[in-house]
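=== Per-residue structure ===
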Amino acid sequence: MNMDSRIPKNAAYYSNPPMHWSLGLIASINDPASILEEDDYTFVIKDYYPKARFHYLILPKKDIPSIEKVTRDDLQILKHMESVAHKFVQKHENEQFQIGYHALPHMHRLHLHVISTDFDSPYLKTKKHWNTFMTPYFIPSEDVCKQVEKYGYVNIDVQKYEAYLRTSLKCHKCPNLFTNIAGLKEHLMDHN
């Protein structure tokens, strides 16, 4: 057999395989073009699949894998991330924002969501997308800081937080409930 015939046509793929999708935030902070702002402790990037008109992520330079791994030693960086979020929100004075963490994030590296409450995005496609921001699954930054300050960690009850993802679709601006995301998104246009 000719040696060259054993080399796959896409050999470059095997010598430099792509990262797993859950490491996408690491790739983003290693790409200078992705970074909107940076200081000694944090990076600010746009969410690659924004769930609203404005959706940013603040990541610590310290490698903290997730909210479950935060300790009292990380309290100052958490407070700094929240401060950066508030400064960033001030750049959008006519928008309302939520600032917080997903209880059970799917992406590696702690990241603070800074998201406008219009939720006007083609990437908002599923009930799960909605419920990750509109139920207690989304933990406000100030609550995370309080827990870490008081207990030294964030208590994550996996079953409790997973249950929030299965709750009914409810508008965040009125009491209306919806059976599907399409109906909810159509309704949101009235609020926006």
Summary: Helices lie at 11-15, 24-29, 75-89, 127-134, 141-151, 158-164, 181-191. Strands lie at 35-38, 42-46, 55-60, 97-102, 112-116, 138-140, 169-170, 177-178. Residues 68 and 154 are 6 Å apart (CA to CA). Residues 1-15 have pLDDT under 50 and may be disordered.
